Amino acid sequence: xGFQIDGMQAGENISPAILVSEAxxxxxxxxxxxxRQIYPQKVSGTFRRIKWTLLVLTLGIYYAxxxxxxxxxxxxxSQAVLVDIEHSxxxxxxxxxxxxxxxxxxxxxxxxxxxxxxxxALAGRVWCGYLCPQTVWTDLYLMIERLAEGDRRERMRKDAxxxxxQRIAEKTIKHSLWLALAWxxxxxxxxxxxxxxxxxxxxxxxxxxAIAYIWIGILTFTTYTLAGFMRxxxxxxxxxWPRIQAALTDENALNVTYRYDRGEPRMSAKKxxxxxxxxxxxxxxxxxxxCVSVCPTGVDIREGANMxxxxxxxxxxxxxxxxxxxxxxxxxxxxxxxVNIKRRLEGKANIFQPVxxxxxxxxxxxVAIGGLMAVKFATRADASLAVIHDRNPxxxxxxxxGIRNAYTVRFANMAARTRHFTLAVQGLPGSKIELVGETTGxxxxxxxVMGADQTREARLLVFSGEARLDxxxxxxxxxxxxxxxxxxxxxxxxxxxx
Amino acid sequence: MAxxxxxxxxxxxxxxxTGHEWDGIAELNTPLPRWWLWTFYACIIWSIGYWVVYxxxxxxxxxxxGLFNWNSRSAVVEDLNELQTIRAPGAAKxxxxxxxxxxxxxxxxxxxxxxxxxxxxxxxxxxxxxxAQGAKGYPNLNDDDWLWGGTLADIxxxxxxxxxxxADKDTRAGDMPAFGATGMLKADEIAxxxxxxxSLSGLPNETGADLAKGKDVFAANCAACxxxxxxxxxxxxxxxxxDKIWLxxxxxxxxxxxxxxxxxxxxxxxxGRLDPTTIKALTVFxxxxxxxx
Lengths: 498, 293
Fold this sequence. Notes:
The complex is a heterodimer. Chain A has helices at 16-24, 46-64, 103-123, 126-131, 133-149, 152-160, 165-191, 196-204, 210-230, 232-238, 241-248, 260-263, 269-277, 290-293, 314-325, 338-345, 357-378; strands spanning 32-33, 81-84, 89-92, 95-97, 255-258, 333-336, 383-389, 396-397, 403-413, 419-426, 432-435, 445-450, 454-463, 473-481, 487-496. By secondary structure, chain A is α+β, with helices and mostly antiparallel strands. In chain A, a hairpin with a 2-residue loop joins strand 3 and strand 4 (95-97). In chain A, helix 3 (103-123) runs antiparallel to helix 17 and helix 5 packs antiparallel against helix 7 (165-191). The longest helix of chain A has 27 residues, at 165-191. Chain B has a three-stranded antiparallel beta sheet, with no helix packed on it. Helix content of chain B is 44%, strand content 5%. In chain B, strand 2 and strand 3 form a beta hairpin. The interface between A and B is large, with 40 and 42 residues. Strand 1 (32-33) of chain A pairs parallel with strand 4 (32-33) of chain B.
């Protein structure tokens, strides 16, 4: 079925369908393409086992993680992973992130992107083939489909045939299971945003907040639609990642590859045996089409690197099974590179270069950003102070001729215990401060009690007192110390005067 | 430039072209999936729903109002009502609290200053300024100088009944006579007393006037309200003349003008316009600006 035409490089094929369309006149090509239903066939082998393992692992984490408990002491949530929108906190085991620390999330996103780049540079679309939620849920949905309606040939026959009571029953079972799974997917999602056991109880007794049901509904709909019906269309038309990966990859990245140096020319096993007996060239590909049958996106890997190929490796399993049957070596389709195919055609040995400029660069960036985040996290303060100078008026002249500046200050005690904060202002010797509402009168420093995990905003007055004001703007440092006199937060601002 | 020709198949990729060419670059025809087209149609049909439920079509005298009976005005009213509901518990706490205790309770103080700040911006800022910084003739509420007293009770009284506000019988009253305009004082007497007044707060004698004569004029005419030492009297709204704060300016011309025309600024009584809780919040807000006694 593969053709070589002049001017094309080895391994590039034109599929017969296109040749037919050329013959029929390209002007007939439609503006909109009808969907070609794909019936992926069941397959077993190494990569299928890897995929099942990863499916159990990833879905297990997704569904079970909200129920994992983590003791943070009284009054704090005991869920290991929790996005607490109401109180603006994100909990991840021993980590508690405040809204102003959202840059940790940015750092994680950058690490995730670099991780994807690295995976792509080493072994192609590992993400697409094994880890992407679209792949994982579609895999699960396909398994349910096979259980209810049978394997590829059976499904094709049934879909072509008339509606029977049995077929209706099978479809009902399939869609019910799909919907139940989709509902569960949405159900697990909302558990990340509220105490899981409480919410499960509320959901079961229909007392959960409306927003929970709305989100379950949305995720039920998307899961059911995307995994049940859209499937490969998501990868081909909706997802930007395949296009980005195409731009990121290079000729040294391992990809699921049809080794045409070994496979071509295609012929029957009997014929190739005969040719080999006469020491003539013979290809290993018997054109059984098993690689296409098992493909979840319906591509023919023998046409070369392909946008539609998510590189899940199921065609490797299918081909290996056939090769074993006809007594030829496995891995006619394998993780390989075009570089190696060309080298083998020239009689050279395979090379594999995982250490390349780009992989080193990605690793360096991952280590640098990960390290920076770790250092930043390990040394992060558990208290903060923010100061905003009054805009209007900038300063106030008092009846005794003194100058007063006012500031809005916000203290945050990010520790899980009550602490005593002491605020002092440096840079204006002789000046006094007053924290409105906390104490009355001017003093050298102000003390206040901060509850665990609490922020407080207050109005701070700074009086020039006996201080000499040499310019109309004097730099100040606001310092917060704890009970032990250790500086736990500080910030800078100015004292304005006429 | 673009040319259109018969579609053909691109030899390199095997994909049919649309027949459109730009400077020799042919456009490949990669058809969109049909479900995409159906999604597009579905969106159009969905949009028709908006015509039905929301106001859409203009008529001669009105417009189609839609099934939801939605309009932007009622939406605002709804939002405001919702806001009132959200604020109700805080307002109730504020209403129940003793005004003297609010500043000692961080939660109440937060509610009071938030409410007071908004009420200040809506009602007081036109005269006193957005930061309560005041202007010539309009007192700065941040400082520690109070014409009518700076305690919570004084501020609440002033807010409720206003200043020289004739419509309120409990209003703050106390007028400075127009000494110059009515001929009660002669020009040289005014010149002398103006420099004497400046000297009370340590300002220099700018005109070489006779301060001793000025002191006599002060004792005879001004001390009744401003006090023998010029310390002022909050009962009458008579300013303290010995401090560094000058509502109408400390230059000679401004002081002479004040003695000539007399009178004083007016402030409306807010008692009838704002509810007692808002006035309470405003009182605490103004008090907390830094000058409260």
